[in-house]
Design brief:
By secondary structure, this protein is an alpha/beta fold. It is built from 19 helices and ten strands. Helix content is 64%, strand content 9%. The strands form two sheets. Strands 6-7-8-3-9-10 form a six-stranded mixed beta sheet, with helices on both faces. The protein is elongated. The relative contact order is 0.08. Bound molecules: adenosine-5'-triphosphate (ATP).
Length: 616
């Protein structure tokens, strides 16, 4: 701890300097001046005692001690004023340091690769590092206290050394046991926190599920409340056991330390008595020595306690620093080759990809796909076959493990990622429902562009969200977050229209739509597919991922995926022609569900009317 402390204080000072240099200077000056005043006060106390315990009449002795008395009072006044100036400065610094430390990691975490966010180890670090910002805030107070105690201690130790050199080591001896005990307890607490951090997170998750508005209907209808509570209690009880274990250990360590402190104090006072008895020290000096020992040991005790707190907090700040370092290593690169503005095609060439930490088969396995500009490409396949993964790689959210994705001749892995993100718009299956107004929910597709009303209206109309917007109590300015004042809840399908409007508003070269109509009514669904077709006619490239196979009839090419591989590709007619194709099998299975009694059975290309009937 002793070797780390200067580094810790330096880190806290650097943070504080970034947050508010003026307040930092105020605290530093106040602490230094307060410490000096305290030393002067102690020397003045010695003078008072020398005069009072010297020879002569009481009134003479009092008169002689008067200037020293005045010095004690003046020093006390300065100490009080400086303490108050330091408290004001620290209070000003603390919230600013918290903000700077929080921004420091939030800024980075928002820019790391998606793979890092999903990485279990990175998340664990994120969990514990989040405490770091609060710890950095608290460190300011402890740093101030440590500095104050250290200066006071130096003053007391200086006075003691002048009085008698043997007293200083005895003072240190008195405080060492409590230093050892505090450090041991802090270290144990920190290690326990790290071992239990995931457990505590899971416990918090259970308790938030019980009050979560989205989970509320199921919690009631399926009577999940009791189940969640039971697990919450079990987890909390395990946590309590750990706390009890720590408390027992702390009590034992504290008791051992108190024993040693008692022995050291006895030795100190015995030495003082011996010095007095042998006549080596006179009474006035012994009186000052007692005061200096008491002040010094109080300062040393406080120094140790504050250092210990500082150390404990610094472990969390160190986690925060580790997180920032780790995030820096996993940041999305900010430079790269420029991407062609209008590529003639985007190609997946033998692309393989496995999610980090997943040992089983790859999510994409030697995938070859060509997406010509201005065409609609459909990706179909069973659940878990890799469609969404392919879309995420196309958007630049992951980088292939092998193979490459090219925009004409530029490898996307080497391209300027900001440009790549700029070129794509996504309606993901699990697109985010921002707890903001309807306006922001659409405009956030281009967060830096001005919120131009006609453009927003056009995007809403495109997605069929215009009716939803006009039916909202405050139109575009309705807050789409239930549970807040003025908040409003819209249906899943209405959200989906908002999501499509957002992607439309983004107006990117490539539009990736992942199951865009799953929550839409039949008419809205038809309208979305018509709009998508119109977009392609206007030159926009569309990648359509869907399970609604009738909607891919008019796409330019269909890729069929199975277990991360492309198993078929071709136009609708080409894929329906062979008797044993996977697409044909899926299509017929789906179309049979729409077959009603008395209707002719579904037929194949070459008999278009009946096939249409079946698909409908
Ligand atoms: N973030 C992730 N981390 C780890 N594995 C994932 C992740 N996302 C998907 N997978 C796995 O990758 C495989 C492909 O998933 P993907 O979401 O691409 O399938 P999909 O074809 O889009 O499925 P669906 O039709 O159900 O949407 C699955 O085995 C899935 O479990």
């Amino acid at each position: 701890m002793i070797t780390r402390t200067p580094r810790l204080i330096a880190a806290a000072v650097r943070l504080a300097h970034r947050a508010d240099p003026t307040a930092l200077r105020q605290v530093a000056v106040a602490e230094l001046a307060g410490g000096i005043a305290q030393a002067v006060g102690l020397v003045a106390v010695n003078q008072v005692l020398v005069h009072l315990l010297g020879s002569g009449g009481t009134s003479e002795k009092l008169a002689a001690a008067l200037p020293a008395f005045a010095a004690v009072a003046f020093a006390a006044l300065i100490v009080a004023l400086m303490k108050s100036a330091s408290t004001a400065g620290t209070g000003q610094l603390e919230p600013k340091v918290f903000r700077v430390a929080t921004e420091q990691y939030l800024q980075r975490v928002a820019r790391v690769e998606l793979a890092a966010v999903e990485d279990e180890e990175f998340h664990k670090l994120l969990d514990s590092a989040q405490w770091g910002a609060e710890s950095a805030r608290r460190m300011i107070k402890f740093c101030t206290s440590v500095t104050a105690s250290a200066i006071s201690l130096i003053a007391a130790a200086g006075v003691l050394t002048v009085l008698h050199p043997a007293l200083l080591p005895l003072l240190a001896l008195m405080t060492l046991p409590s230093a050892w005990s505090s450090l041991t307890i802090a270290r144990r607490r920190y290690l326990s926190f790290h071992t239990w951090v995931q457990h505590a997170r899971a416990g918090r998750l259970l308790s938030t599920l019980l009050i979560d508005a989205q989970a509320a209907p199921e919690v009631r209808v399926h009577n999940i409340g009791a189940f969640l509570l039971r697990h919450f209690r079990t987890m909390a009880e395990t946590g309590e056991q750990e706390q009890t274990r720590l408390a027992r250990l702390a009590a034992r360590t504290g008791l051992i330390a108190s024993g040693w402190t008692g022995l050291a104090s006895s030795a100190t006072y015995a030495t003082l008595g011996l010095l007095l008895w042998s006549g080596t020290m006179d009474l006035a000096v012994a009186g000052t020595a007692v005061i200096a020992i008491r002040t010094g040991s109080a300062n040393l005790e406080s120094l140790v306690v504050q250092l210990n707190y500082l150390y404990e907090e610094s472990l969390f700040v160190a986690d925060l620093e580790r997180l920032c370092k780790e995030a820096d290593a996993r940041l999305i690169p900010e430079t790269g080759k420029p991407l062609p503005a209008n590529p003639s095609a985007i190609r997946f060439e033998n692309v393989s990809f496995t999610y980090p930490g997943v040992a089983e088969r790859p999510a994409l396995d030697s995938v070859n796909v060509t997406i010509p500009s201005g065409r609609i490409i459909a990706i179909v396949g069973n659940n878990g076959s890799g469609k969404s993964t392919l879309a995420k790689l196309l958007c630049g959210l992951y980088v292939p493990d092998s193979g490459r994705i090219t925009w004409d001749d530029v490898d996307a892995a080497e391209a300027d990622r900001a440009q790549l993100f700029d070129r794509v718009a996504v309606v993901a299956q699990d697109f985010y429902r921002w707890p903001f107004t309807a306006r922001i929910n659409v405009a956030i597709g281009r967060p830096d562009a001005p919120h131009d009303e006609p453009l927003l209206d056009a995007a809403a109309e495109y997605a069929g969200a215009d009716e939803t917007i006009s039916s909202l109590p405050r139109g575009w300015d309705t807050l789409l977050a239930r549970g807040y004042k003025g908040g409003h809840q819209i249906s899943g399908g209405q959200w989906q229209r908002i999501g499509i409007a957002r992607a439309r508003h983004r107006n990117a070269r490539v539009l990736v739509v992942d199951e865009p109509t799953s929550a839409l009514d039949a008419e809205a669904e038809q309208r979305v597919f018509d709009q998508i077709r119109r977009l392609a006619a206007e030159g926009q490239t569309v990648v359509l991922i869907t399970h609604r196979l009738h909607s891919v009839r008019h796409t330019d090419e269909i890729y069929v995926m199975e277990q991360g591989r492309i198993i078929e590709r071709g136009t609708f007619d080409e894929l329906m022609r062979p008797q044993e194709g996977a697409f044909r099998r899926m299509y017929l299975t789906q179309s049979r569900q729409y077959h009603f009694e008395g209707e002719e059975s579904v037929s194949l290309p070459g008999q278009p009317e009946q096939a249409e009937q079946g698909a409908r």
